[in-house]
Design goal:
single chain; 354 residues; mainly alpha; 76% helix
């Protein structure tokens, strides 16, 4: 146990160490050039954590490892639950059936495509494929973190998935404003999108929340409705992670039973933190807490997520990446192309019908 008498001191020291590194990551993410790129503290945290794991790890007490693991596992679940304070069910209603339909279609198709590409086409293991698919289909690094405990995946596999999210999410953040200004805004016919449609397209296909926020703000003269629709559709994708994880847990249980035979005793994998996440979002929908308090909760939650991501990086050794080759890159590229081109078609089709 992490807090048993013989491990308590090391665990607390490890948690404090992770918190200090996470605080540094938060500070770096707030600096002008880094902030302008839309790089979240979570990403900075895992980069620092990976640097530590591959350079300074042996110079720190081994007893701190229990605190690092506690941050990557337990604090992570707590932070995902309180991520629900960023959402309300009213947001989903406000964007209408088109936004919800796009969110549902892009999440499900991207996750299935990424898992299939990774496992069947490029020879990736199941966990890395699903983690990479979760990051692309839902909400980037936070989705990878949320999916990792359901799969019981190793930390280095989550780090691979996060790196793919960072790479292609960053490309999207620069690509979308250029696409809009170059041909989408001024075209006629199929290639044209209204600001509302482009907002839905942005929110339905870009990886990270911060990147979704950055795109409309990078387009000169973009109407506010574009930014509003983009964020609401993105947050709809975020809230859909809960039913996705529950279904994933049920699938893993079914698969284990199928593999183990009729008589195999299989423990049902239900990510209860995902259920609690929906409960928190439902509670937040009633606006019972003052807005300033909710903002403080969200700031604290971002810091806890940064701690979890930092701790994840601290468990990532480059030696574990051997054998993966370019398969994660090809898998993520396949999903990226689907999000950009397939997402465009889906948004045009859905908005034409709804």
């Amino acid at each position: 146990m992490a807090f048993s008498p013989e491990k308590r001191r090391g665990t607390i020291s490890g948690i404090v160490f992770v918190a200090l590194v996470a605080a540094s990551a938060t500070y770096i993410a707030g600096l002008g050039p880094v902030k302008a790129l839309g790089i979240s503290p979570l990403v900075v945290g895992i980069v620092i954590g990976i640097f530590y794991a591959n350079t300074l790890h042996n110079h720190f007490p081994p007893s701190w490892e229990t605190g690092i693991i506690f941050s990557a596992k337990k604090i992570l679940r707590f932070a995902i639950v309180f991520y629900g304070f960023r959402l309300t069910f009213q947001q989903i209603i406000d964007v209408g059936p088109a936004g919800f339909t796009v969110s549902l279609l892009m999440l499900s198709t991207t996750f299935l495509l990424g898992t299939w590409l990774g496992t069947k086409i490029f020879g990736l293991d199941r966990d890395t494929s699903m983690l990479t698919a979760a990051g692309a289909s839902v909400c980037g690094a936070a989705a990878v973190l949320a999916t990792e405990p359901v799969l019981k995946a190793e930390g280095h596999k989550a780090a691979v998935a996060v790196s793919m999210v960072v790479l292609f999410g960053t490309i999207s953040m620069f690509l979308y404003p250029v696409m809009y200004a170059t041909f989408i805004e001024h075209s006629t016919g199929f290639l044209h999108m209204t600001p509302e449609q482009f907002g839905i397209y942005t929110g339905g296909t870009i990886h990270e929340v911060a990147q979704v926020v950055a795109v409309p703000n990078s387009i000169p003269g973009a109407p506010q409705v574009m930014a509003n629709d983009a964020v609401i559709v993105k947050m709809t994708r975020v809230i859909l992670i809960a039913p996705m994880l529950i279904l994933l847990g049920l699938y893993l249980s079914w698969q284990a039973k199928k593999t183990g035979g009729e008589g195999a005793a299989v423990k049902l994998v239900i990510p209860w933190f995902a259920v609690y996440f929906i409960g928190v979002a439902a509670f937040n929908s009633f606006h019972l807490l003052p807005h300033p308090l909710v903002e403080k909760i969200n700031v604290t939650d971002t810091f806890l997520l940064t701690m979890a991501m930092t701790a994840l990086g601290m468990q990532t050794r480059f030696a574990k990446f051997k054998g993966l080759g370019l398969a994660p890159l090809y898998t993520a590229l396949g999903m990226f192309l689907w999000l950009v081109f397939g997402g465009f078609v889906v948004v045009k089709a859905v908005t034409a019908v709804l």
